[in-house]
Amino acid sequence: MEGVKVKPSPIEGLGLFAVQPFKAGVTIREVNVVREITDEHPLRPELGERADHCDYPDGRVVLIGPPDRHLNHSCDPNTYIRYEAGRCFIVARQDIPSGQELTCDYRLNVTGGDAWPCKCGTDRCLGTVAGDFFELPEAFQREYLPFLAEWFVCRHRERIKSLG
Ligand SMILES: [Zn+2]
User: Fold this and answer.
1) pLDDT at 137
2) For the chain, is the Cβ count within 10 Å smaller at the N or the C terminus?
């Protein structure tokens, strides 16, 4: 585990922190995907597997392992997830100094998910994490366009086009 470490977060529980500076656009690390969750191989709560440690790339459900499952949500995130040929990477959205907590916006690349209260504490916090990209204010949607996954853009081409 290079470049990052896990420790208590002011946002929620444990967080993922930079232990070196990262320049905007740099790939910080590949996300540790444990396995795909399917009807045949569902989550095993008895082993500590949790739905809130899952990600949803391109209609699939995958279980995220440590340390990446500690990547907290922020309404003003400093990273985003890049999806590439079935793999996921944490990429710096801006210059990140050593010691800063890494965050991403859970509202990217999702629709129809649950909403829950947000405690990110940033100036532009909306107070809830809506589980749907299209429920974000349009200004946010436009800002996030370059960071959306290709499969998400393909699935929602018409709605995204209407953002101009
Ligand atoms: Zn927030």
Assistant:
1) 93
2) C
